[in-house]
Amino acid sequence: MPDRPAGRRGGRSQPPERQPSGRQPAGRQPARRPDSAARGQAAGQDGSPAAPGEDAATEAQQEASALKLLTEGSLEVEGRLIVASNATLYCTIRHGDTVAACVYKPVAGERPLWDFPTGSLAGREVAAYEVSRSAGFGVVPPTVYREGPFGPGMCQLWIDADQTMDVLALARRTDHAGLRAMAVFDAVINNADRKAGHLLPAPGGHLYGCDHGVCFGEEYKLRTVLWQWRGRSLPGRSVAALRRLQECFDEGDLGETMAAWLTEEEIKATRDRLELLLKHRVHPYPPEDWPAVPWPPV
Q1: Closest Cα to residue 106, out of 127, 93, 131, 123?
Q2: 34-67 residue pLDDT tens
Q3: 255 contacts 190 by C-beta, under 8 angstroms
Q4: How distant, in Å, are the alpha carbons of 157, 164, 167 from that of 161?
Q5: Which of 106, 141, 276, 288 is the most exposed, fewest CB within 10 Å of its CB?
Q6: By C-alpha distance, which of 61, 120, 65 is closest to 96?
Q7: Residue 169, exposed/middle/buried by CB under 10 A (0-12, 13-18, 19+)?
Q8: DSSP string covering the chain, please?
Q9: Which of 39-43, 44-48, 83-87, 168-172 has the weakest average pLDDT?
């Protein structure tokens, strides 16, 4: 197979295969949002409602079409991202006349970790997408859990990142709304691996992130290159996004959806972090007993 194709940054090396866990059947529907959380809500980069001129209905339809393609399309493996520590396959996905590129991470290719349950990383990537989608952050590309050529796993729409963008310089910025929204998102999901190489700046200006398999731990282990806002007040739009997320837990079925991928204790810890952010409305500080920056940071 060819080496990692251009267009997407981030990833880890090929591990030995092991048997999939069979945690969750393929084709599960995304979480249902309450009407007030979903009404008029485009995939805002900073969690804000659609700006004037933006067509929220069109964006929602495009996202639904992407999820349908990822869930029902046929996968053909084209190559492997050799820098990934877990099996990460670049694929073409087809459904009818629709063709797109995607990333497929089979559970069988996950490397066992001491601090996360075996076979749970693919589901955590789906859970991260559900949080991003429910809050309106729009920082995670459409992601599903499905059967593939090497068994069940995560399937995510490929993002053609802007190769002219210096992601290290991007990660240091303090004036990028999408980057700051991602920092808030990471605080909610307790991301233990936000490297600069996991930032995917799209040519149109939208910022996505990838590799959310080591998130949602019960203990506070936020590890990121995005500490520039620590201790500063959260932007009003991020507070609004957090409120929408809380509403999706309280009035929608987000908790039920997350239960397919996370333990009861992990869901409670996620809600606790959410409530803490809404109570204090500041960006968190680095943990004192855990490395604050992933290595390597790219």
Answers
A1: 123
A2: 554 443 344 455 444 444 345 678 888 999 999 9
A3: no
A4: 12, 9, 10
A5: 288
A6: 65
A7: exposed
A8: ---PPTT-----PPPPP------S-TTPPPPPPPHHHHTT----TTSPPPPTT--HHHHHHHHHHHHHHHHHSEEEEEEE-TT-SS--EEEEEEETTEEEEEEEEEGGGPPP-SSS-TT-HHHHHHHHHHHHHHHT---S--EEEE--TTSSEEEEE-----TTS-HHHHHH-SS-HHHHHHHHHHHHHT-S-B-GGGEEE-TTS-EEE---SS---SS----BS--TTTTSBPPHHHHHHHHHHHHHHHTSSHHHHHTTTS-HHHHHHHHHHHHHHHHH-BPPPPPSSS-SS-SS--
A9: 39-43
Q: Name, in order, each residue with C-beta under 8 angstroms of 124's C-beta and a sequence gap of 6 or more.
A: 116, 212, 213, 214, 215, 216, 261, 262
CA distance 123 to 117: 11
Q: Are 32 and 225 in contact (CB under 8 A)?
A: no
One-letter identity of residue 186: D
Q: Which residues of 44-59 are buried (b: 16+ CB within 10 A; e: fewer)?
A: bbbbbbbeeeeebeeb
Residue 5 scores a pLDDT above 60:
no
- Cα dihedral sign, 32-37-38-39: positive
Fill in the DSSP letter of residue 52: T
Which pTM does this prediction carry? 0.85
Cα(252)–Cα(274) distance, integer angstroms: 16
Helix residue spans in 147-263 (DSSP H): 167-172, 177-189, 236-250, 254-258
Distance of alpha carbon 3 from alpha carbon 126, whole angstroms: 25
Inter-residue contact 106 to 126 (CB < 8 Å): no
Which helix (H) or strand (E) covers residue 70, if one does?
A: helix 56-72
Give the pLDDT score at 33. 54
